[in-house]
């Protein structure tokens, strides 16, 4: 069964032609998003798969952050850490390229009891030494929508 046939089958579930409900919509969205991620060249894999250190700003305050990224087929996965006061915060990240020069990473707090998640979009030049971008998400303590700038270096 090809990818398009699978999408058509899931669409049939989602539209109510076959089965009903929310589960069908969730499955369709998940498959559709993974299907939309672009393949990553070997050179790009090597350039992305490393430890990135930098800063992000949120609400006028700057925080140090590091992200360890690995490429697994078309997906980019990893983890990150930043310090807020005396607390070390751990994040899990996953995403990919929907366009060759912009990396989309979803993030969430590693501690499942903490409601903190969002999206990071980074500009990735050829032979990147620096990644710059924006993030938006739900704040760990504020439980409000937060956002800011992020810059990472090799």
Structure, explained:
- The protein has 154 residues and is α+β, with helices and mostly antiparallel strands.
- It folds into two domains: 3-36; 42-153, Lipocalin (Beta Barrel), CATH 2.40.128.
- It contains three helices and eight strands; from the N terminus they run H-H-H-E-E-E-E-E-E-E-E.
- Strand 1 and strand 2 (61-72) form a beta hairpin.
- Helix 1 packs antiparallel against helix 2.
Question: What would you say about this model in short?
Answer:
With 154 residues, this protein is an alpha+beta fold.
Shape: globular
CATH superfamily descriptor of the largest domain = Quinohemoprotein amine dehydrogenase alpha subunit, domain 2
- Largest sheet geometry: 8 strands, antiparallel, barrel
Helices and strands, in N-to-C order? HHHEEEEEEEE
User: Percent of residues in helical segments?
Assistant: 10-25%
Helical run tally: 3
Terminal-residue CA separation: 41 Å
Output the strand order for the largest sheet. 1-2-3-4-5-6-7-8
So what's the CATH class of the largest domain?
Mainly Beta
Second-tier CATH architecture of the largest domain: Beta Barrel
Work out the number of β strands: 8
User: How many structural units, i.e. domains?
Assistant: 2
Ranges where pLDDT stays below 50 over 5 or more residues in a row are: 23-32
- Structural classification: alpha+beta
CATH topology of the largest domain: Lipocalin
Question: Secondary-structure map with pairings?
Answer:
Blueprint: H1 3-15, H2 22-36, H3 42-48, E1 51-58, E2 61-72, E3 75-84, E4 87-99, E5 102-109, E6 117-123, E7 130-138, E8 145-153
Antiparallel strand pairs: 1-2, 1-8, 2-3, 3-4, 4-5, 5-6, 6-7, 7-8
């Amino acid at each position: 069964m090809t990818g398009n046939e699978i999408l058509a089958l899931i669409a049939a579930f989602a539209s109510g032609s076959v089965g009903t409900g929310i589960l069908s919509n969730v499955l369709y969205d998940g498959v559709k998003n993974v299907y939309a991620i672009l393949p990553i060249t070997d050179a790009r894999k090597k350039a992305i798969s490393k430890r990135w250190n930098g800063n992000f700003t949120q609400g006028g305050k700057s925080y140090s952050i590091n992200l360890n990224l690995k490429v697994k087929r078309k997906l980019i996965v990893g983890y990150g850490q930043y310090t807020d006061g005396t607390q070390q915060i751990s994040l899990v990240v996953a995403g990919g390229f929907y366009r060759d020069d912009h990396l989309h990473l979803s993030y969430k707090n590693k501690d499942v009891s903490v409601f903190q998640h969002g999206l990071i979009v980074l500009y990735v030049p050829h032979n990147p030494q620096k990644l710059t971008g924006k993030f938006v998400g739900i704040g760990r303590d504020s439980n409000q929508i937060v956002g800011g700038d992020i810059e990472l270096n090799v």
